[in-house]
Amino acid sequence: MSRRLFQPMFGVVRPTRVISTITLIVLMLVVFVTDSLTQLGFAHGYLYIPIILLASAIARMRTVIIVTCCALVLNSLGYLISPEVDVDLDTWYVLANRSLTFVIIGATYVLLHIISRAEKSAAKNLQVIAQKEYFKELSDALPVMVWTANPDGTIAYVGSQLINITGKSSDYILEHWKSILHPDDLKRSLAIWDHSVATGEHYLVEFRIRDYQGNYVWMLTQAKPKYNTEGEVEAWYGSCSDITKQRAEQEQLRLLRTAVSRLNDIIIITEAEPVQEPGPRVVFVNEAFERKTGYTAEEIIGKTPRILQGPGTQSSELDKIRSALLKWKSVRAKVLNYTKDGREIWLELDIVPIADKNGWYTHWVAVERDVTREHNMEQQLQQIQRLESISHLTGGIAHDFNNLLTVVMGNADMLCETLTDDSQRQLAETIVQASERGAALTNSLLAFARRQTLNPTSVDIETILDDLSPLLKTAIGRENELIVKVEPHLPSIFIDHAQLENALLNLATNSKHAMPANGEFTIEASVSELDAGYLELHPEVEPGSYLLLKVSDNGHGIPSDDIERIFEPFFSRREDNSGTGLGLSMVFGFIKQSGGHISVCSETAADKGSGTTFCLYLPLIDSASTDSPSVSSADTSMPAQLTVLVVEDEAPIRQLAVNYFESEGFQVLEAENAEKALQHMEAQQRIDFLFTDVVMPGELSGVDVANVFAKRYPSANIMLTSGFSDKIVERETKDTPRYPILSKPYRKEQLMSQVSQALKTKSK
């Protein structure tokens, strides 16, 4: 019989199994032959029982069944072919003998079957026990807490780790597991569990359980169903993982992200390399980056921060940053970047490398502070300081030059009076005319230096603009249009009427050269409030309400590089060099000296709405302000027998003034400083007039001398003179009457006119 023939009956044929099978067949044939040759009545069917027992010992139960069936068949054949016995036996005896054999063989099989089933059941129970032990050992070894549940959702098993962390027994947890959950998490967790049990869906939830110390720890709990062959849930296998630390880290990360998102400073995190082109890629930006630059996180992540650089970004700062990055060093820099819409933004950068636990640098972190406002304030302050320095220098030069012009003009004037030769007198008059032109130039410089003599009065701006309109139209040219817009009921301003007109005419003249044909020159008047936000960018400005004159044109504008220099004296943008470069500097100085403020904005495009706009902020009238003493030049006759004290530290100017007064019949006392003037006051019972320079050497100024003189001679007259109207005049006279001031250089006619008017005013 082939191996394939034996396979269906005996399974996979092995050598030992073949031998066992052959042995069983041989034994059964031996018993059959013996039974066939034995006389009927002496049945040997019992001999099949050892063979069946042998089969159960060496083969599987299927073989036992085959052997048993063969034994029954062979026992029946043996009954049919065995010879009859010699003695007379009843048939029932023979049948009973054979039937008993059948019963015993069948009983043997049944007994063997029962024993086999019992052994299988015992083996299965042992296997289940072993599996449970293995499952317990495995669950105890796992880093998670293991548990199982029945199909109805009741807990069937909990691992030792869950027992250890709760401090409760297994039986307690199985019965009262709900009691160890945090009350705030119980309802939600049960609802999700009931839903999973009802639907067979994966169970996943986070909740807190109480540990043996009474503290609550966070658990990530999940479970999946196990199905039997019929597709029914057989059990639930679940686990609990302690995520308390992860939750704390997540909370810290959330707080960190929230804090970073609330920061007003930009934070950028990039990869560590490449430092060279194209640069490290961005992996994170905070909300401040989006607010400040206009780029979204999606637009910048994966790109290099160099997207923020532009034409004005300083190459020196970029080289400094690149050099530090190549050395893996921290660096601080101030860089000009550009927003998405092209607006300039100044950023102060702090860039540091970040290393992993192995010390390998993996990222760069940049904290960037928007210092645009501070930068603009710094630039504004530098411009103010530069203009202030130029102002002091210009004012000092103009003052000294005025003193020289006073001597030249005065002596030339006296020569004109004494010379009889017409040609010589003509030469003297030429000197006077040249001196007057020099005086006009120094007055322009003094205007910029805010040291010119002003005569502020209460002025209605609407009246000023109405009266000035014809001159403005002439200044801008007939081909251009003048537009004047004045808000109704504007308050008056306290300012020098003539100088304000000159300032507006200067601006109009500049606009004429900047505007194309058919241009528009516009003046708008309104009240403006300069608040704290404006003052942050212009710290030199006093807060409060101002009359705003907005003077604008639609010309070609001023380049940004020139904006910072337009108020400097002798700076001119005219290509034909036709200007002196003093017009805007005079406007600047006049507005500043008047207690106001001037700003300029310009666009160099040729589109509509471009051009230049000057904003003139003029101080509103103060109820405490009074008009400066005005002097008429109509009458120069002098009373006789008057004594005048001339105080002047410059000897040539002092001598000139003495000559002027003596030529008009005054008795003159002269002093080169304040101390000498005080000595004259002590020595003289009567002095009718004091004529003193403002700026004097020593501790006392001319104003101090005037104040002492006014107390000693209350009925006498006082007049000041100066190469410029310095702040000392305003400071020293704030608590005293304001004295008339004669500006240098002056001629005899001007001096005598003001002296005459002062004497008449005093006598009234």
From TrEMBL:
Looking at the record, the residues that make up the Histidine kinase domain are 396-622
Q: Domain PAC spans what residues?
A: 203-255, 329-383
UniProt-listed PROSITE patterns: HIS_KIN (PS50109), PAC (PS50113), PAS (PS50112), RESPONSE_REGULATORY (PS50110)
Catalytic activity field: ATP + protein L-histidine = ADP + protein N-phospho-L-histidine
Q: Which UniProt keywords apply?
A: Kinase, Membrane, Phosphoprotein, Transferase, Transmembrane, Transmembrane helix
Pfam families, alphabetized: HATPase_c, HisKA, PAS_3, PAS_9, Response_reg
Domain Response regulatory, residue spans: 643-759
Q: Which InterPro entries match?
A: CheY-like_superfamily, HATPase_C_sf, HATPase_dom, His_kinase_dom, HisK_dim/P_dom, HisK_dim/P_sf, PAC, PAS
Q: Which EC class does it fall in? A: transferase
**A single MF term (Gene Ontology):** phosphorelay sensor kinase activity
Protein name per its UniProtKB record: histidine kinase
Which residues belong to any copy of the PAS domain? Answer: 131-200, 252-304
Membrane-spanning residues: 12-34, 40-59, 64-81, 93-115
Q: What is its EC number?
A: 2.7.13.3
Q: At what positions is 4-aspartylphosphate found?
A: D693
Q: Which NCBIfam families match?
A: sensory_box (TIGR00229)
